[in-house]
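Lecture 7 notes. Example A: sequence first, then its structure tokens.
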Amino acid sequence: MKGLVLAAGEGTRLAELNLKHKSFAVVNKKHIIDYSLDLLCNEDGKPLVSEIVVVVGHNAQSIKDYIGDTYKGISVSYVFQAERKGIAHAVKTAKDALDDDFIMCLADECLFNPRLEQMVEEFYLCQAGCICGVVLDGEDFSMKPIAYSVDETGWAVSVTEKPDAYENDIRGIGECVFAKKTLAYLDELQPNPRRGEYEMGDWIRMIIANGDGVKPFVLADAYCNINCAKDIQSAAEMLEHR
């Protein structure tokens, strides 16, 4: 299994901090990208993945200089995303480097009490096309997280990107485990007509429609997506009190 870290964004709403890259924002004396990279190791520090692929874009060299060729003994490679056209577009950019099942992480999220190793175990146990990380009754709605509807056994029957309202307490976050075969659907994926981006929700809908199975998994007690300066303080306070 490989790890995929999406770190191409410019982070214009963090411009006031004069960072080389938005993922260098510091929460509790730790860069937020390190929270994402550390997810790819289990609680004993052993790697969950054989390689980490990092998608870079804005100020790419700063990310390469910071991480280097290895992270805690895991080989690291880089893919350049020339245009930022959504999360699914970023994954499609890295498609040729992902020749295995993979864990996708965002470089601008902090998770609280994450259970990624258990999510990987569930992925293999249920043989899903995708296991989607979620939190229950998440508090951060600034980015309108993905909404999932599930059947009585917990499998997703529908997914909505940036909904106007939520019918349950399941809030999608950026961390997911994908089967290698689901990458093929990215060749068919079209930009979302409302926003012009290749969206993760549309990709997951294709996985459901093709019968590969999508299952939400409660990955953390809570999360914070770092989009502006106030989010850094919010994340620090949440970490401090959990």
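Example B, a different protein, same format:
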Amino acid sequence: MPEAGSETLNGQAKVNYPQGYTSENCMIVSLMSHNILHPDHWVTTGQTDALSAMQGNGNLFARLTPENITVVVEKFSKAEQRRDVTFKLILMKLPEVSEKEYKIGDVNEDGSITQADLTLVQNYIQGTQALTDKQLKGADVNKDGSINTGDTFKLTQYLNGAISSF
């Protein structure tokens, strides 16, 4: 952490990904830390998406970036003394979904492309429906890498018979 009285309230460390891990194929499962005040007490933080935070002598965050894992420690005030922080970061590699495991357009995985699939995609876009990795691959019918109204438009065209394939 920065020294007491320093204008800087945070410090950071950049950690290389383990071999075979990237920001696209893993997630933070746990970010544990302790400082010199509590050397035998490790605390696991909460985790949402690629951001984890904890309270202690400041805030501790870890963020997955394309280049590395960036761990940031923030002090609460300039007057606070420096306290060294040790952290443990646990990553989990996400399962890969191959094209053979899903069918484009069949989001609910029932074997056919129907209005129910379109409704799932619409609900996902509105934020009221979560989709699995396999469902996300099937929902990207225009193959642009994201699920959006372009996909609902193509699904509607397919269901109305305007197009016969994706």
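Note on Example B: Confidence is low (pLDDT under 50) at residues 45-56. The two ends are 53 Å apart (CA to CA).
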